[in-house]
Amino acid sequence: MKREDAKELADRALVDLQQDLQAGRSTLLQRFLDCMSRFHNYSWNNCMLIAFQMPEASLVAGFRRWLELGRHVRKGEKGIGILAPLAYRKKEETENPDNESEHVVRGFKVVHVFDVSQTEGEDLPQLAGIHGEPGQSLAGLEGLVRRSGITLKDEVLPLGTKGLSRKGEIAIAEGLPAAERFAVLAHELAHEWMHDEEHRLHMPKTVRETEAEAVAYVVCRAFGFDCSTRSSDYIQLYRGDATTLAESLERIQKTATRIIQSLDETPSVEEGQRHVA
User: Fold this and answer.
1) How far apart are CA 173 and CA 157, in angstroms?
2) In what order do the strands lie in the sheet with 60-62?
3) Do 106 and 201 form a contact (C-beta atoms < 8 A)?
């Protein structure tokens, strides 16, 4: 593929991505955020208690909160004990009659929460995914990463993390579907090529994530994937918008064009098929 053709593909995809961002949050993203807002943010101590009792826990809530979300705890499931503050009202005697009561903590009590894996019921909202079959393109992308001098590893990553760029090394979460692996790898390669140590120290994370995800979107579109609102939702989760995207268009276009052209010219199937354990 000629560079001009790759650039044209990138330009068309970026126009569509801008339109998605200008439209604002998708219905799916809004449902996801509304649902996530109903989960409590636990203290560091309680997070440690949860991790100690159930290391694989991903989303926890109390018995009644799960009912509010349309799910119920299965019979016989053992709760995860955490500490809840015992709060009492304390009235201050002042000359101000409008003075409101204050809450003071006088100890803690053990309460129990349950992980989503211990519940049944309505499905929780999920962000849009990516669909398609990468075929040899995935092997080609893995080969491109390695030819760039970047180590590629499959790892067990923290929950919710699908990939990491460590400058000179990319880690991909084990067990990702092929299409998702392709998209995540394109995202992390964009970080590797676009964001040096200076960028990582001084460029806002919103900008870095917008740039990397926009590159992934363009590359995925160029190879025929159905991206839906996956990338625009991701960018908005990091508080990016059409303005953020517009300010980086040239950088995004150059990086995406480079990846597309490289994959089209040298897929390197044999090399890419050797996954790193």
Assistant:
1) 5
2) 60-62, 102-115, 80-90
3) no
